[in-house]
Design a protein that fits this description.
Layout (H helix, E strand, L loop, with lengths): L7 H7 L4 E3 L3 H5 L6 H10 L7 E4 L3 H14 L3 E4 L16 E4 L6 E5 L4 E5 L4 H10 L2 E2 L12 H6 L7 H4 L2 H4 E7 L5 E4 L11 H5 L8 E8 L1 E2 L3 E8 L3 H13 L6 E5 L1 H7 L1 H4 L4 E8 L1 H17 L3 E2 L3 H9 L6 H6 L2 E11 H16 L4 E11 L3 E11 L3 H22 L17 H5 L2 H12 L16
Parallel strand pairs: 2-4, 3-4
Antiparallel strand pairs: 1-2, 5-6, 6-10, 7-11, 8-9, 8-10, 12-14, 12-15, 13-14, 13-17, 16-18, 17-18
Helix pairs in contact: 3-17, 10-13, 16-17
């Protein structure tokens, strides 16, 4: 494969500690993320995407050298953490190089007084959380992909974790960072308590999905492990009653760590012994014991006033134990199924209507078996809603048609309802055609920023923005 990437010898001389891989399974392993559509395309063609080389830095200096070399040679660069993305954020070609950050996996500092921790960007999320737990701390960021995602990937996609209602999303947690720009320049944004020194440049970098450069080090706020935890579950008469319960809980100032509403289909699948054909609400409160007690009582009163029936703590404990166990897309395709999740967000006054609209229109797609939904991240002004679709596929070509139609149907409904097309998985390739519909002229501002920082267009080309005409 080395004939497709020129100048690797010079890079090796400039950065002797940089691991350069030009053959073997790693090239295929890092060639794409877990986007369902790219998996289907690989099966249809019989070819997995592969880069010409994989570069594996262990520190910022080696990462900087790699990006400087890429700029000099005009080589496309694809940053890679653990490949858990589901939107097509990584899709390699023979002339590109993947920068695999997994050797950059050290905790650099934990400050128990000021409650902040600094870590290299390639560290696995679950390893970072375990290191914090050993010190009696937690980040409070627990995405379903925590065991197969990197902390840098969280920032690159503006991720959100399952405990976000209490602890916030990744943008609330990032205090400072080190970021390597195209050409190798290292940008250091120091952590501060709060600052008004112009626009917050961290927010320019978060969500850039490798198109503006690569995170190398990150400083996050952390928290003491909670003294007390309490879960409680309920069934509710219908989805709208569950939505109203969540709205009133947030309006009342309560912030349980976990707030989840499953429609009847998903409740039946996950909590067959509890749901009895009804939607289900799950909550987990944590913090000081007195706060947990007060919050739990307030939540119960609000939900029961909406017709909810208490179902105890066991469903929450079961969810906690199994929440990160999901079947692989490979296994689902082997069963003749096309499956994906689409997470969006919308204001409370339109959430139930959006759920009804997408459920109806998605369910009408030919060969669609199920279009279901659940709410999993709540705010005072609205919430995230996940749509999950399951369809049968007579063949891969038909499967791709169903996949594209399900996404098109959902994106159109969300845009027309005034919601946002992406809550926390990012844009990648799957949503980029809808970016202008949501951002308007903001897309041109984003493109101008991209052209300024990456004039050669070598940073993760094809991701986030439509290719320039």
């Amino acid at each position: 494969m080395t004939e497709h990437v020129e100048g690797l010898g010079k890079l090796a001389a400039d950065a002797p500690g940089l691991e350069i891989v030009t053959e073997g399974e790693l090239l295929q392993e890092t060639g794409r993320d877990t986007w369902m559509r790219s998996l289907m395309q690989a099966r249809a063609s019989g070819r997995e995407p592969r880069a010409g080389a994989v570069l594996r830095p262990s520190n910022t200096a080696e990462l900087s050298a790699a990006l400087r070399w890429a700029g000099e040679t005009g080589t496309p660069v694809l940053p890679y953490g653990y490949g858990s993305g589901v939107c097509g954020g990584v899709l390699a070609s023979a002339g590109s190089v993947v920068i695999d950050l997994r050797r950059m996996d050290a905790v650099l500092n934990i400050d128990d007084v000021s409650l902040r921790a600094t870590v290299q960007a390639g560290m696995r999320g679950s390893d970072f959380e375990a290191a914090l737990n050993e010190r009696g701390l937690t980040m409070g960021h627990c995405p379903q992909s925590i065991e197969i995602s990197s902390v840098g990937g969280w920032c690159a996609t503006r991720a959100s974790g399952q405990f976000s209602t209490l602890y916030g999303n990744i943008e609330d947690m990032l205090l400072g960072c080190e970021f390597v720009l195209p050409g190798g320049t290292v940008l250091r944004l120091a952590s501060s308590t709060r600052s008004a020194t112009g626009p917050d440049l961290k927010h320019m970098l978060m969500g850039s999905e490798g198109t503006l450069g690569v995170f190398s080090e990150l400083t996050f706020r952390v928290h003491p492990l909670p003294d007390c935890k309490r879960g409680q579950a309920f069934t509710v008469p219908d989805f709208a009653a569950g939505v109203e319960s969540l709205r009133l809980i947030m309006r009342g100032g309560w912030r349980p760590a976990v707030t989840r509403l499953y429609d009847a289909a998903e409740a039946g699948r996950h909590f067959a012994g509890m749901a009895e054909g009804a939607p289900a609400l799950l909550f987990l409160s944590e913090g000081p014991e007195s706060l947990v007690q007060a919050e739990s009582a307030a939540i119960a009163a609000i939900v029961e006033a909406q017709g909810g029936t208490p179902r105890g703590e066991e469903p929450v404990l079961s969810w906690m134990e199994h929440r990160n166990q999901v079947p692989t897309f490979d296994s689902l395709l082997d069963q003749g199924l096309v499956v994906d999740t689409i997470e969006v967000a919308i204001a409370w006054d339109r959430l139930s209507a959006l759920y009804d609209d997408v459920s109806k229109k998605g369910g009408e797609i030919e060969d669609m078996l199920l279009m279901s939904g659940h709410v999993s991240h709540c705010y005072t002004h609205g919430a995230n809603i996940y749509f999950t679709f399951v369809a049968s596929q007579p063949d891969l070509e038909r499967g791709l048609e169903i996949y594209d139609r399900a996404w098109e149907t959902t994106m159109r409904a969300v845009h027309e309802a005034g919601g946002t097309i992406a809550h926390h998985h990012g844009i990648g390739r799957v949503r980029r055609g809808w970016l202008k519909a949501e951002l308007g002229e903001g897309v041109e501002l984003l493109r101008a920023l991209k052209d300024s920082l990456d004039p050669a267009g070598i940073m993760n080309p094809g991701v986030l923005l439509e290719p320039a005409e």
